[in-house]
Amino acid sequence: MDESVPLELAGPLACGITTGAGAVLNTANPGPGESVVVYGVGAVGLGAIMAARNSAAATIIAVDLHDSRLELAQRYGATHVINSQKEDSLERIREITGGAADYAIECAGVIAVLEEAIEAIGMLGTCLLIGGAPTDARFSADHMRTLFGKRIVGALGGSRTSQEMISALLARWKVGRFPFDELVRTYPMAEIEQAIRDTHSGEVIKAVLTLA
User: Fold this and answer.
1) What is the pTM assigned to this prediction?
2) DSSP 8-state code for residue 35
3) Which end of the chain is less congested by CB atoms within 10 angstroms, N or C?
4) 126 found inside a domain
5) Is 138 helix (H, G, I), strand (E, B) or coil?
């Protein structure tokens, strides 16, 4: 890794942001004109949104419960945003895409959301599982609609080694194509409780504690 990159920025790339970005760039790799739906736009989902903006995808849809996070998603590349508390997200996705999405990236770790993500993709579409659901969680999918070529794929750690992914994302960051640093807020260790509160409230996406 480039030693000029501050550790407080490099640290957040160790897992979440990298996982979301790699799921799009490496596992999905959407082609020209294709559509991507990202469910849950915390750190993982926003990483996916930024990556989708760096891809050939024409339509990038963010789905979340919080308007503040949807505003961030739009800032970082979403062409459409859906607050699933205010409208039927599946119906809206079908309207936007003209039928179904090519890719759905499930970042929420909620089984009901995952099952909707599977429904959101069409024939030959791909649903990527990267949200952290409980270890004993199970999901179901419609057999006949899945039979028509739907793919359900797990993606862990960006589907590449950490060395490859972090270097690739930092290269994009340096030329302004992956502004993940805007998601990071640093706190001195003495303010750890405030960092936890801000994280739980959604005020901050990625809190980093500093020792100095």
Assistant:
1) 0.92
2) E
3) C
4) yes
5) coil
